[in-house]
Amino acid sequence: MHGFIVNRYSVSGPLISVATVGSLTWLVSLIYFQEKGLLAAVGLGILIALVLMDRFRDKGADQQKTGWFRLYFSLFPGLLFLVYIYIESAFGYFDWGAMLMHVDAGILTPGVVVEYLMHTGSTILVIAVVLFGLAALKARGTLTRGLDVALMAFFLAANPMLTRPIVAAMHSNPLHDFLATRFVDITPLTKPEAGTASVAAAPKNLVHIFVESAERTYLNKAEFGDVMDPLLEFDKRGLSATNMVQLAYTNNSMAGMVAANCGTPLLMTYFTTRQYLEENSQFLPGLTCLGDVLRARGYRQNFISGWPLGFTGQGAFYASHGYSSLFGGAEVVAAVGGPGSSFGADDAQVLDMSFDVLRRAQQDGRPFSLTIAVSGGHATDGYLTDKCIGKTGLSPQAPNILHAVKCTNMLIADFIHKAEAEGLMADAVLVLQSDHLSAPSTVTDRLNKYERRNFFSLSGAGIPAKAYAGLSGTIDIFPTILDALDVPLANDQAAFGVSLLGDRPTLTEVFGQAQFDEAIYAEDVLVRSFWKLKPSRTDVASEVELD
């Protein structure tokens, strides 16, 4: 028995060290993938040190151990650090405000949560290996009190979810008012006199399609095949932004919609945001957005999505900004029939519903805006609509997300061609855009080999066919749409966005993405006014139809 105990510890010690250090190194490399070589070298050095410590320490102490695991000081800090790594690797970023807002506003349906857990199961398993491995090393005595305290300090200091708010509270950023001095408020455009004085000809209609995660990077045929080909026809018809980056706080679906509709990143303070969402059902009530301007001009506005209207506050956002008809996944499925999807309605159902709404809007005779959100390219592996199974033309071995992206693009092209054939797109401006760059998915490593850019195309009567190659962001979509609809803008700017139809460089190009992002992170002047309720908005929610 004595020999067995000694042998058990001598064999298991190095194995536990290898599993623990190797797993921790792999997890850290998920978010610091550019330093994988350095991380591997550091991990190897730590592993050698642990093995040597384990070999030369007092073996007699091992024989008195009766368990394999012991609690350790760095357990809770380590858990927090690994939670940060999990969120960063699964969603591509970590931000307290965005995370808490998503949770409060309705983050995910149970089906989607289960799917995410299934797709990230290997990461969760490796996290468990690290936590239990450290407990085993503590029980063996390899993780001494001194090493445990040092590891606890490392986990705390290396965790941005803890250090970022602390640093922000301790040091005032000189860029905290940078955005406030460059913000152009277009509230005067919502005055009744502005809506009538500026419209000399019949107003143009608007069809605006948010294509989930369909970033311009997918245009690389050598890497991704022809997944974007169905949209190229429309991209070549009018304005095409070829260098549209992802600015800070525009990296999720709701933030992308706010950027394109309001010309600003989604700035928020958690408690203020929660107050207006819960008490007033208002989303950014102090901000003047596209829907507010079009409402003042008599537009009837419709929003259609396959997700529930409560998802990340989308319903509250559009209801707060002039939209009179809202259709979420449940409403779409009820209207067109079919089984739906794990989160609501699939893209084929959404576009079928959208076509019916478009036809009715044309018959109504009033100017209209139709905003559609499709979801096929959503991480982590896409949602392939049943209608497209076996019809994408891609190899069966291609990742499901590529089939899903192409499927959605095919459905969008069919929708537009059908609408054009019936004359429903006459006098309409068509906007196609990715809501944001793809979150971590089964093709992220392939996307990261290239300079990643968002997709944005705007076409219609009077829109010149040109490529805008200057640096831009999704915030510039807002004034570009207003410009295309012949809404007059002072110096081509609205909020932080600059029209890409004009000759003026964008703020992103003038200041560079790095400085602009830093200013967005530091902003603490405008954010509260954006969420402050305007008297004119107090009764908006009661006017909305949940069709």
Automatic annotation (TrEMBL):
<dbReference type="GO" id="GO:0016787">
    <property type="term" value="F:hydrolase activity"/>
</dbReference>
<keyword id="KW-1133">Transmembrane helix</keyword>
<feature type="transmembrane region" description="Helical">
    <location>
        <begin position="38"/>
        <end position="56"/>
    </location>
</feature>
<dbReference type="InterPro" id="IPR050448">
    <property type="entry name" value="OpgB/LTA_synthase_biosynth"/>
</dbReference>
<dbReference type="InterPro" id="IPR017850">
    <property type="entry name" value="Alkaline_phosphatase_core_sf"/>
</dbReference>
<protein>
    <submittedName>
        <fullName>Sulfatase-like hydrolase/transferase</fullName>
    </submittedName>
</protein>
<feature type="transmembrane region" description="Helical">
    <location>
        <begin position="116"/>
        <end position="137"/>
    </location>
</feature>
<dbReference type="InterPro" id="IPR000917">
    <property type="entry name" value="Sulfatase_N"/>
</dbReference>
<dbReference type="GO" id="GO:0005886">
    <property type="term" value="C:plasma membrane"/>
</dbReference>
<dbReference type="Pfam" id="PF00884">
    <property type="entry name" value="Sulfatase"/>
</dbReference>
<feature type="transmembrane region" description="Helical">
    <location>
        <begin position="68"/>
        <end position="87"/>
    </location>
</feature>
<dbReference type="GO" id="GO:0016740">
    <property type="term" value="F:transferase activity"/>
</dbReference>
<keyword id="KW-1003">Cell membrane</keyword>
<keyword id="KW-0378">Hydrolase</keyword>
<keyword id="KW-0808">Transferase</keyword>
<feature type="domain" description="Sulfatase N-terminal">
    <location>
        <begin position="204"/>
        <end position="487"/>
    </location>
</feature>
<keyword id="KW-0812">Transmembrane</keyword>
<keyword id="KW-0472">Membrane</keyword>
<feature type="transmembrane region" description="Helical">
    <location>
        <begin position="149"/>
        <end position="167"/>
    </location>
</feature>
